[in-house]
Design goal:
This protein is an all-alpha fold and 110 residues long. The chain has one domain. Helix 1 runs antiparallel to helix 2 and helix 2 runs antiparallel to helix 3.
Length: 110
């Protein structure tokens, strides 16, 4: 957000956005990119250091969720072994920890 390579990073994110087929995912990438640009503008205009907790919550975490969804989509398309179920919907981010613990308990010796 504050570095010299922000423009390059933002351009790369735009390229990712343009290459995504899903309108929902494309919109999410655009939202994250716009939010990052807002943080950058505040930094440049007002010399205001970003609120890193906000950057984490509104940029980093959503990007990690987007990356996971894209990896699943790529795996579905490239898989010849059908190891990834075609109809599996991604777990919403706010429930991912609960789902992880649920499956750990299912697989545990308890």
């Amino acid at each position: 957000m504050t570095g010299e390579r922000f423009t390059q990073w933002s351009d790369s994110l735009r390229e990712v956005e343009e290459s995504i087929d899903s309108p929902e995912l494309r919109a999410e990438v655009a939202r994250v990119r716009d939010r990052a640009r807002e943080v950058r503008v505040d930094y440049k205009r007002h010399s205001k250091e970003p609120q890193w907790d906000v950057v984490q919550a509104e940029i980093s975490k959503p990007m990690a969720e987007i990356r996971a969804r894209l990896q699943q989509e790529i795996a579905k398309r490239e898989s010849t072994d059908a190891l990834v179920p075609i109809d599996r919907d991604p777990v919403p981010g706010r429930f991912s920890e609960l789902v992880r613990r649920y499956y750990e308990k299912l697989g545990g010796d308890d």
